[in-house]
Amino acid sequence: MSQLQETQQTWRSGFRLPAIILMAAFVLFAPAFVGSYSLHAVVIAMIFLLPALGLNLLVGYTGLLSLAQGAFFGVGAYASALLSIHFNTPFYINVVSAGLISGALALPLGIPALRLRATSFVMCTLGFIVIGQAISKNWISLTRGDMGLSSVPKPYFALGPWSFSVVSTAAYYYLALAVASLAILAFYLIVRSPAGRNMIAIRENETLAEAVGIPTWTYKLIVFVLSAVFAGVGGSLYVHYLTVVSPLTFQMYYTTTILIIVLGGGVGTISGVVFGSILFVALSEVLRVAPEIRMIAYGICLLLIVFKFPKGFAPVIDKVWLALGGQRA
Amino acid sequence: MTLSGMFKGFPLKAAALCALALTGGFISQAQAQDGDIRLGIVSPNTGSNARYGSFALRGAQLAVEEINSAGGINGKKIKIFSGDSQCTPVEGVSATQRLIQEDKVGFIIGDICSSVTLAMQPIVENAKVLLVNAASSNPAITYKAGVGGFKWTYRNYPTDEVRSLVVLDYATKQKNFTKFAVLSVDSDYGRGAINFTKKYLERFKSEIISEDYYKDGEVDFRSVLAKIKNSGAQAIIMYGLADTTPIIARQMVETGLAGKIPLIGNGEFNAPATIKAAPTALNGAIEAAAWLPGWDTPRSKEFVKKFEAAYKGETPNNHAYSHWETVHLIAATMKAANSTDGEKVRDAMAKIKFDSAVGPITFDDHNQALVPMILLEIEGGAPSIKGAFVGSIDYPKN
Amino acid sequence: MLNLLGEQLLNGIVTGSVYAIVAVGMTMTFGVLRVINFAHGEYFMVGTFASWFVIEKIDLGYPQSVVFAVALTALLAIVVGYFLMRKMVGAPFENGVLATLGVSLILQNLAVALFGGSYKFFNGGYIEPVELFGYGLAQQRILIVIVCVLVFIGLDLMVTYSRMGKSMRAVSQNIECCEIVGIDVQSVVLWTFVIGASLAGLSGVLTAPVNVSVYGGMGELITFKTLPIIIMGGLGNVRGTFIAAMILGIAESFVAGFIGLQFRDSVGFVTLSLMLMWRPHGLFSLQSRF
């Protein structure tokens, strides 16, 4: 390395740690600097991040394209809403139950669905959304049908003598940050584990994976259930923020959004999905004045992803990052 | 890649992106002058309910123009900021947040879709912004307003409770119908109105023999109309969408129901275009509307004339009217309170007596306006007004 | 009661005919491309819009508008087919899903951006009712059924006897062999796609008089209805699709007529899900190919 390069290297590494601390501080103390509206946008991004992580697990690590994330997102939302409305349960019970209920539902659905080949599997998962919407519309005694469930209580925590409610946007920002961070950590642990490596093997070459003894079908089922858990947790976060849930939650709009986040962001990477959620939120807020343009932009994004950026836009970010002198992570 | 290796780049990148998003740089709408009164209008401007949103927004804009050209309120002009809810709670909430935080509105009129309004209520309550709803039908909005909890929500639109009562009363007493088939839209509006209707069935000694709900965008009614034809129902109770009524009317003609079984309820039966689509089917239709273009008071006729002049001859619908009237209501309340401060206006609205185009309006303790419901019957191809009724609401005890 | 049963059966056949014309296009596209065209409903919408536009703005008569609508849809299909669909040959299945979803979003929202989001009223067509077996039917519906039968006979003949049809069958079986034998796969794919999309457009303009409402988002519902049909009929199987479409039309009619209109849309996907779980290879194919 030349003298100049060495100096540059040292300068950059010396620069890096303070930069990380500054950024982390900014994210942690954001409510002090930015308004409710921007915080709201980031909360929405983090809510969508959760089902996106689930889909990322499915598509990115086992190669299964599923359109059912929207269905489990809706199930989680309804589950959480019903629990808190009828039993007044604290948030940590709601969010965990929402995840577990979605996961539990995914199990009997996944078993027959995963026997199908790619095309039929996609159709089957699409069917889950349609059926989910029909159930939420018609099981009126439980879901109140189209009237929806409103006045869902804000999340509250009761730990011993201590209890507090999360009401303001800033407080919700921290709650969402906490849940999202835990989810990202969980995701990371899953994919770094030996099980995760098996999943990658399945994605790369399923036949070969089976040949070396990986029980592919079992793994696919587990991943399907796990992705439903992520989606359910996202649904719980969503319903406590909006305080309203209705059959509209099962619209294709949510599934399309989650698809764009995962595929646009970068399948199979964590930062890609985070980037995808921020991209989605930024697009939707900047293009707020013309929603058709936004949906056309989504359509163009999908086409770009298919033809130009099959790995999502994350590699572009990587290039910019490297050019700015960051280290290859 | 080791644990530390993985985390080297990722959190930095993610945090950088997060920071980017947080610092905003979002484009906000046109700057208003200081001292202007900022009014937000949340409505579905795109999506399948775009038609209603466009009428609502234009009605409000017309009223604002009228007020501003007359000198504004205590010298201040009103500035409208529009937010698109797409009839989805998430979007509606985002639009509301943006209006409050970025555009700094102090007053909001919205939404048309009840689910959106319900989601907006806690937000305006927290931000202490006055929300006056002018089009939603879900009773829960009112149950939770005023003494029900949300002090910053008012509703200037009749409830479906009164609507369904008025319709059923007329159908059973004046027309002697006792057997009804239900064909309403599958939404909180359609289902809610039928729920209320069921409450009153016993009082009027009538029954519902079949119950069907159609989705937004449904085009094939032949099967259900065949069923109704066979069932012995004397009238079809329809609380539905303005755009679907002509389709159903046409298919009633097709299947031979036109002229035999009338439509009763609400679905813009009185709109000239709808009647023209299938006159034989619409004849004898009974509708309870908050307002219709044919309403014969000077103020109402003036509104129709001005709207048509401003918007290329297009006749306003009842959402255009209700939003127009609500802007005038807010303006009148500001004058009565002699202030544009949100809290003072809110308190003044509870006590106001406003002369609207359909009669005097006052609010009950749930911040619900007591507005008359107009009952009309289509006779000879045109709506004929039979009366206007004011009803009271049975609030659930809890 | 028998009267009512007969009427619902007739309703089912009429509905099924519409589904059949739309579905056959999607299944043919799948046959040669292995792509499920999520934008298929949008060609239906384009056909309807085109016809509405010329009737409203240029005062053309209905039959002329049909010709115009099908021509415009075909033109659009040529453009999309040339630049997008041909590239899907041999690509992984996910690409097709995403690309056609993208096209669907663009077309839907272009229509809304250009013409506004509100529902338009379709004037035109033969809506006068006539009596058939004692049931009232708009003339247009009889026209639809006749066209459906003609289309299917025509397609069947084409696929069995014509050169194009034989090439289509060959491409749907084994693309590599086709290239060896000298069949221009790209061309076959393009024209199959164009025929399919044009049929969807034709279906749109034929049903517009009785459906009355025209709006940008109408295609999405059509796509959703068609997906179960092509899977149940067997992907790429023209005759199977016809039968599946009729069965769905009749089933929906009975559900709407005897159980409730609000359950009508669930019939398709519930049946599909059940079928996929127990008989994944479709009702008519012998073995599971997809």
Report on the structure:
The complex is a heterotrimer of chains A (329), B (398) and C (290). Chain A has 329 residues and is mostly helical. Chain A has 14 helices and four strands. The radius of gyration of chain A is 21 Å and the shape is globular. In chain B, strands 7-6-8-9-10-13-14 form a seven-stranded mixed sheet, with helices on both faces. A five-stranded parallel sheet of chain B has the order 2-1-3-4-5, sandwiched between helices. Chain B is 44% helix and 19% strand. Chain B is an alpha/beta fold and 398 residues long. Chain B folds into two domains: 3-158 and 294-367, Response regulator (Rossmann fold, 3-Layer(aba) Sandwich), CATH 3.40.50; 161-289 and 374-389, Response regulator (Rossmann fold), CATH 3.40.50. Mean pLDDT of chain B is 85; it is low at 1-12 and 21-32. Chain C starts with a helix and ends in a 12-residue tail after the last helix. By secondary structure, chain C is mainly α. Helix content of chain C is 74%, strand content 4%. Chain C has one domain: ABC transporter involved in vitamin B12 uptake, BtuC (Orthogonal Bundle), CATH 1.10.3470. In chain C, helix 1 runs parallel beside helix 5 (139-161) and helix 2 (40-57) packs across helix 9 (218-233).
